[in-house]
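Appendix B. Raw example, untouched.
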Amino acid sequence: MFDERDLGRAVTFASRGILLKVGGVLALVGVVSLLMLAPFGGGTTSQAACSPLAPGQAGDPRANGPLRGIQVGFAKIIDEVAVRRGLPGQATLVALMTALQESQLMNLTYGDRDSVGLFQQRPTAGWGTVTELLDPRYSTNAFFGGAEAPDPPGLVDIDGWPSMSYNDAAQAVQVSGHPDYYAKHEQDARDIAAAAGIDLNRSGDPYAGRAGTSPANEGNENFAEDNDCGQGLVAGKPVNGVWPAQDATVTDPSGTGGLVTPRTAAWVAQARQALGTLSLSCWDAHVWNPTSDHPKGRACDVMVGADARKSPTAKAKGDQIANWAVQTAGQTGIHYVIWYGKIWSARRGTWIPYNGGGVYNPTDATGGHFDHVHVSLW
């Protein structure tokens, strides 16, 4: 459990911006007192993307209030280091999961034996001095490893880490006595990354900064794969909001000449603003499938330019579109998303295999939605 000491020490050597934002909060003695009594609150556990037992479902407590703000601030620092080094978003996710397990993503001045900092690195193990390890940028760079980092192997020094589970990649660096504990922090890490505006699907070189050559067939690739689902699809959450029915009264902004609902038109505008130029089509008669949302003006297909099973570029583009749709579903009113042989529903909050609904051939590029992302709105 965290106490007043944790809250005060957690911001040690943080960036000045974080200190300014947190300082006002720490001055509220009443808030700190509440944190001492119930530091994590009773938040709802997020649902993971693949199964009830997926990472993030272990019931571990989640920080709220001032503690959450500190976590988000340190997450930004970790990602800044990763971006500067040219590492993919996957590296940031592994680092966040590691720091959550080791320190609850707090820059602690104490720990087991001589461990300190975000990653609880030990000076006697060669990670650096106490002063260095309490610098979050130094400790993060040490965790990532490479030619300019301390002697203990970091993430980029681990051959094949992108093909490991996130848990095993973290353990390969930390060599913890609890090797399976990192996995349970995945969903919390994703939530914090979302709050920090971090792109966990960012491409990059997984061995950036490594001394010597990278392992064969690895490097400079887009490692945006979700190790649990195997499809590069981020975990979603059930969306339980109420979206009143709407009639199709707005000219389809995708240029089909048909009408769509105001909610669909708004989604198109937001998607274009967030994702740039898109090749999409919304209204369609769909005479072969009268139950479709397209003729009701409640659906759009976003094309990715090729069969994503044969094109990494198309796959990455589709992942980006689908992930953004899922992550913003609670604000835009998305009912379900179909992409790359899987379907995500707002009520379920998970990705499951798509079987074609008795209408489409799920092994076909179009029927299985390997060449486009389908988005339906309430």
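End of appendix B.
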